[in-house]
Amino acid sequence: MLGMVFNSKKELQTFYSNYAREEGFESSACQNSLHPLPSTKTDCKAKVNATMYADGKFRLTTVVLEHNHRLSPRGYDKLTFGEKDCRNYIDKARRLRLGVGDAEAIHNYFVKMQAKNSNFFYVMDLGEDGRLRNYDMPFAPFVGVNHHDNSVLLGCGLLSNEHTKTFVWLFESWLSCMSGIPPKAIITDQCKAMQRAIEIVFPDARHQWFLWHIMKKIPEKLRGYAQYEAMKRSLHISVYDSLTEVEFEESWRIMICKYDLLDNEWMGSLYEERRRWVPVFVKNYGNALRDKWEKENRDDSDSFNSMIPCITEYEIEKQFQESYTNAKFKEFQEELRRKMYCHPSLVGVLGSISTYEVAEDVIVGEHRRDLKFLVFFNEVECDCQCICRLFEFRGILCRHVLTVLTLRRVIIVPPKYILTRWRKDVRRKKTYILSNCDDIRKAPHSQRFDKMCNKFFDIAELGAEPEDKCAIIMDGLD
Fold it and tell me: Any residues with CB less than 8 A from the CB of 148 and at least 6 apart, and which?
């Protein structure tokens, strides 16, 4: 509430009166401030003060919301305004531009952060009047996945709207922050404006859609059909059980014809963009900030100081137990458990490459069925590939590959199957970088890293201009 801007005194009074009515107290207006009626019994100090600026607008400069007395209970039906009215006003208020001096305050904060850490990056989009254009919501976070399979906030932006031009600005700013290195893959929702911006700024990136976001919309889009439950099951089977692109195409065609969905625009648009979300087409890897830092540190500590027991006597399992974080090792063990439902058979040999058909016993709906997967094993290189592509997609060896590896008496898998990003013995570079939560965290290695970076920066400045000095410094570092 503090800092909110109103176009007139009446608008301010209406807002606070509605707030008071909702909370269960009465308010009155004074010449220079707004505050609730004082209580002779409690001397309540709750109030808001507003100042009128040269442009005639009012800005809240003092906000005291705590009351020292009980508030009148008021039900939703007693309010003089509805949820829609409240949401409309909040949406209008939140999009007001920052007041004079606020942009400078934010800029000063960013400068302070950059002084603490030279890797801190920021961009501000200012209008001709010197005010921020990209304020308030929508909030656009850039999120990655760490080695414990937890989400990690990489950066964020505040946007004025969700138009293509705005997303282009956001992505170009992100690209600049990443030293011009674009992401290999990016996963978003189905926003068309964002899709067009990605095609402009990241033309070579693999753009995918969140599968869960699409599947979550099934009730909204299809519940009106009489055969909704059967349609939902068929859609799940087409999406999750198709092992090849041809199999998906045929399964989708049968579903569309069976339930007469040819005229359904949503289903049609999903099919047109199937390569962005259907798993069989996907070949790539796919205060709050402080909590994430601390959670990752706790997970690191757990992985180093505790060990999940093996469930088999296979040396391969011990290999992953010693290398992977606990979270990723649990994923590996789940594949190992599912191995008991897999039955391999040799179907062909060509030189050093053997082809196996692995039949997996699975439950589909209320029935059991065998899903058949082809696994290719190269005996010379100890290389194994499965058409389910779990390793390519999740970085975890699948149950079908594990079935073939144990059948071939492979004791230790090659290092290429132990991905660095899932290892527990690798120090992540980002843990050295100071953030705004380091004043509390005071991690010693971060402090040492920051101290050395500042010193190296001074050295770099000294050796940047003369070629001979630069050569001397580089030789010394080598």
Answer: 296, 299, 300, 303, 325, 326, 327, 328
Q: Which residue has the tokens 């309010």?
A: 79
pLDDT digits (tens, 9 = 90+) for 77-112: 444 444 455 555 445 444 444 444 455 655 666 666
- Mean pLDDT, residues 169-198 taken together: 86
* Residue whose C-alpha is closest to residue 420's, from 243, 285, 227: 285
Virtual torsion, Cα 419, 421, 424, 428, nearest 10 deg = 150
